[in-house]
Amino acid sequence: MADRDRLEAIVGEYLDHLAVDRGLALNTLVSYRRDLRRYVDHLQRRGHTSLDGVDEASVQAFLGALRSGDTEHPPLSAGSAGRALVAVRGLHRFAMREGRVSSDPAAEVHPPSPPRRLPKAIAVEQVVALLESAAVGEGPLPLRDRALLELLYGAGARISEATGLDIDDLDLDAKAVRLVGKGSRERLVPLGSFARDALSAYLVRARPELARRGRGTPAVFLNARGGRLTRQGAWLVLKAAAARAGQAEKVSPHTLRHSFATHLLDGGADVRVVQELLGHASVTTTQVYTLVTVDRLREVYATAHPRARG
Q1: Which of 196, 257, 258, 263 is catalytic?
Q2: Which of 59, 164, 250, 305 is most exposed, with minimal Cβ within 10 Å?
Q3: pTM for the whole thing?
Q4: Is residue 271 pLDDT above 60, yes or no?
Q5: Is the pLDDT of residue 95 over 90?
Q6: Helix (H) or strand (E) segment spanning residue 82
């Protein structure tokens, strides 16, 4: 058997294993086949005739080639290179498990870390315009929509946390709301006057009318039929308000939550306090917001300091 045929044979066996034993989707198999074909080419160029002779340096060199590109392939992003490496690591694990090789040279080769994506916050004046654009029209829904968006920004709540709220979770007299986040972790978050006023108006003047249309639910936020508002329904409320405010391209389901955290830090809040308010299990998750505020500081410095240019 020719050298390439030997390498492609084990790749074929691995792909068959993924298709039959693991039931991977066709598109995933196509991607694995493409990545492993490139890996076989790489191994041949380095003089390897079988997987048994491959060392960690060869696998690491393949990862480097993915990131830098070559005459036939453009450079891949960290995420795409990582996905290709997953296929290679799986191939070597399979070969070792099947007794074809004596060691796994890919075991300690790890995918590159993707660049940290900074959360996207909008300016305070944009938040105000977004909130004000919710209460448009007649009937109970505009009051609901304003209360929902005020809560998302005023408490830094996730959309799922807001739609999961029950009446007993609100304590407007104590100026607080109980939110249940990921992993069923509960936290008590203060509510500012704007959020309290919007919620009070909704609960008194709008929710009873919506509740009469349904069968009875403890949910705070109700849909037009009187049932609990879904996450998708809440996202549509946010999208519609963003469109009216001319911010459709800037807003995502987490925009008000991101803005809540960023504006707190801009105002001098301690990162660990923001961690508690957001319900993050680790302060490391919260610290990504400090990168946003540092960028803002640089921007202000560059435009305001007389000797900042250059």
Answers
A1: 257
A2: 305
A3: 0.62
A4: yes
A5: yes
A6: helix 78-97
Q: CA 231, CA 253: separation in Å to the nearest integer? A: 9
pLDDT, one tens digit per residue, over 289-309 is: 887 777 766 766 676 767 665
Q: Using CA atoms, how far apart are residues 110 and 236, in angstroms rounded to an integer?
A: 40
Which residues, other chains included, contact 196 with Cβ-Cβ below 8 Å and sequence gap of 6+?
A: 172, 175
Catalytic residue at 280? yes
Q: Specify whether 73 is catalytic.
A: no
pLDDT(117) > 70: no
Residue in 32, 153, 202, 289 annotated catalytic: 289
Instruction: Judge whether 272 counts as a catalytic residue.
Output: no
Instruction: Let me know: does 160 contact 151? Beta carbons within 8 Å.
Output: no
Under DSSP, the state recorded for 53 is: G
User: In terms of Cα–Cα distance, which of 44, 53, 35 is closest to 91?
Assistant: 35
Q: Give the distance, in angstroms, between the CA of residue 257 and the centroid of all CA atoms in the same chain.
A: 13
Give the residue from 143, 166, 305, 292 showing the smallest Cα distance to 228. 166
Catalytic residue check, 254? yes
Catalytic-labelled residue, pool 45, 175, 182, 298: 182
pLDDT of residue 137: 84
Residue 1: pLDDT above 50?
no
